Every structure is written in structure tokens, then in C-alpha cells.
């Protein structure tokens, strides 16, 4: 009998996790029994943050410590798997983090202790790609601003004026910075709109591109694109990559959309590009600080479309995360290398 701690929340819920683990383990190992302990985390009703040495976690170290004795597997999205927690968990052998990056887990300490850590890559690729395209459309057609005029009782037929009109994606050029699981799906959707799609990604070979997608250097992408959409990872090399110089390279009247990571963009430079009229609009789901300060200037811009880091928030994402977690746990219990393993050096 394997003791598993499910530390779900109001998005990836414990009932979803339990159902998927029973299904996956039962299919792979029908005779294997599972015993669950559960802890319901307060996220998203209570924001995550840094906890001890980990980040983007719910502050529930003490609650974890009360439940960790004898636990072999933890499945969670937001629980802080810190050194303090690991010290109290000598039976722990596997942590499954139901997100793309296990920033709430001290992976280095887990590796030293022989504790495997798995993530669930691609769990929100569909949701994030669809949200990115929604942001693009909402930005180039100024949907929130125009909605506000109707809601205010105005009938702005003057918005038909040429200078007030937005762009069609059909026939426009859209540049995607990053061509991973999300960027590739965005490209396919944009091609269905009959847009020209450019990609800048130093880790992608041109032969791996879908038909109709062109690989170019970042500077060329910026200069040729009517819309630039960011899908890159945040690394020391990509931090601040869309700075004043990059924005100046973009086409006059262009649009920037960021649904990847706030740290990719110099938002002060973006505000200046919008104020000067060099850019016509911007849309983003991610911010330099989350939540942004109430006096942040871009909050007051009527040429900016914003959502609060919700690109991956669909019910299907939650189910997919639970399903991927179930596959990792089933493989581990069967003695196989679990999918999504991020610290293979912990294998012994």
C-alpha cells in the first residue's frame, strides 16, 4: 500500500487528482493499493508567493509537516516542498508538481536525497495558445475599449474612421518569439486565419517548422511583423529582450502581445513606445510585478489589453494536469522511469 499526499487546490483539485491516480495506477497495476492523505491549499483565493527557499507556493509548510510522516509520494501544484519539509519526510520518494516548472520544489535538495521530481509539461499548451490568440485579436481590434463605449451607452460610429480601425490577421504578418508547444499551436491557429507567420527561436531548426512558417532572426522578425507575440522562456539570456532598441525596430503602428513571462519585456520602454505612437497597442497576460502596483502607468492606457496571468486557466488544463500526474505516479510505482522527470540524477 503506497501512501500518497494529495495537496491540491481550487484549480487542480484533490478529487481530480484522486480519480486520475486511481485510473492510471489501476490500469497499469490492478493489484496495487493506494492510500491518500489530502491537504486543500488556499490558492487561487489566496495568492502564492515565496516560501522559505522556493517560489510561487502556498504558505502551508506547517500543514505539510503535520501530514508528511510515512508519505512516499506528494502530488501538488502549489505546496512548498522545502528543505524543512524534506527533512521531515524520510519516506518520500517522488514529488509530482502539476505545472510546467516546479519552482515550488527544492529540486536540488530532492536530488541529493534521491527524491524524484516530475512536472507536467504541456498541460496548459492548448489553453495558453488559445488565450494568446484571443489577446492578439482583442488588441488589434481594441475590443475591450470598444466594449466600454457601448456599455457606457455610446454608439461610436466614428470608430469606422480609417485612423480608428484595427487590423485583420488575414494578410498580416505575425512574429512569434519562441516555438515550443505553445508557440507551435499559436502558429497553426494563425495560419488558419491566413496570416504570414514568422518565428524566431535559436533552439529550432527550420526543418522542424510546420508548413507556411518561416524561421528568421529576432531583428528581422521585429522589423517585418505587424504583430509580435512572445512565447519564450524567461532565462538570463532572454530577460529584458524586448527593450527600447527592440521596440524601436518594430514596425510603426505595430502591436506587441506577451502571454509568456513579464520579465521578457522592458515595460517602461513599452509605455514610451505607446505614448509616442510608435506602437498602436499592446496586450499582455503577464507583468513585471504581479499584481502590478495601482499607480502603474500602463493600467490607465486605453491601448492596452490586460488579463491577470490566466492564459492557462481552463477546466481542461486542470484535468490534463491530473492525468499527467497519474501517469507519472503509475510509472514510478511500476518501477519505471516516470514521464516528466526533471532530476534524472536522483535515480539510484
Pick out its properties.
348 residues, alpha/beta, Rossmann fold, 2 domains, 7-stranded parallel beta sheet, 5-stranded parallel beta sheet, 32% helix
Describe what is shown at a glance.
The chain is built from eleven helices and 14 strands. The protein is of the alpha/beta class and about 350 residues long.
Write the layout of secondary structure elements.
Layout: E1 2-7, H1 14-28, E2 34-38, E3 49-51, E4 54-57, H2 61-67, E5 73-76, H3 83-87, E6 94-97, H4 107-113, E7 116-118, H5 125-140, H6 143-151, E8 173-177, H7 181-192, E9 196-200, E10 213-215, H8 218-224, E11 227-230, H9 244-249, E12 254-258, H10 267-276, E13 279-284, E14 304-306, H11 315-333
Parallel strand pairs: 1-2, 1-5, 5-6, 6-7, 8-9, 8-11, 9-10, 11-12, 12-13, 13-14
Antiparallel strand pairs: 3-4
Helix pairs in contact: 1-11, 5-7
